Amino acid sequence: MEVARVPKSKCEEAVKVAIEVGYRHIDGAYLYENEKEVGRAIQEKIADGTVKRENIFYTGKLWSTFNAPEMVSSALEKSLKSLQFDYIDLYIIHTPLSLKSGDDLFPVDGNGKLIFDNVDLCATWEAMEACKDAGLVKSIGVSNFNRRQLEMILNKPGLKYKPVCNQVECHPYLNQRKLLEFCKSKNIVLVAFSALGSHRDERWVDQSSPLLLEDPILNALAKKYNQSPALVALRYQLQRGVVVLAKSFTRKHIEDNFKVFDFQLTEEDMKAIDSLNQNLRYDSFLDHPEYPFADDY
Fold this sequence. Notes:
Largest sheet: 7 strands, parallel
Number of helices: 10
Helix content: 25-40%
Shape: globular
Structural class: alpha/beta
CATH superfamily: NADP-dependent oxidoreductase domain
Order of helices and strands: HEHEHEHEHEHEHHEHH
Strand order of the largest sheet: 1-2-3-4-5-6-7
CATH topology: TIM Barrel
Low-confidence stretches: none
Distance between the termini: 26 Å
CATH class: Alpha Beta
């Protein structure tokens, strides 16, 4: 379950419902500013005997204002404290786009432009490795990295742990085929966010971009399998070997997402969904020197 941009008032309740329904993977981040609520919900479900801590898999993320290596462990400690955890299961670098260090999540100059920082991501990675060695995280990975940036880490002299995953925007309009093949060749798991298209936040998303869940092919397949277009889009990712994150905060949607295991798409239908790819990126980053998406993949 993805808890990005879930309103704080609903977040705690949604996480409790998700755990009751059977979800065990919760995808969070410092940036979402709801780790206290997520932590409270998990602690409550542990206290009432629904789950044990070791049955929960929590993903946390190092935000871009903490990419400087000397900031990594203190950023992690902040998340651990908010969550009331001794460790995080998976901790990933949220983006390769480093921003000026400090408490402001989006530091801007007098003209309202983001203030970038020039950080050696290999040094950031070494600080992540140290967090794993200290037992504060079980696994480490990255998010929003392209092939070149992944290779920079993989080819780093003295690499101790390679990234276990790369979490990226991925859906039928942006199927990430080349990046998926590359990650599979390196035993890196591709994790899909915005798997149903987009939250359509006006700050990042072109409002004229097409709505994925209104796509005629997805809707025809939904009718064929007697499922929703959303479930068809999620099932597509599972069959490609992609870990897929679903975001919802109503009990019905949380329960419905479990039906993704109730059916299987034919090879022909998988190819039909493949054909929808148009390299449409809903989430766009800004003019940063480490901008990852100018490369082919």
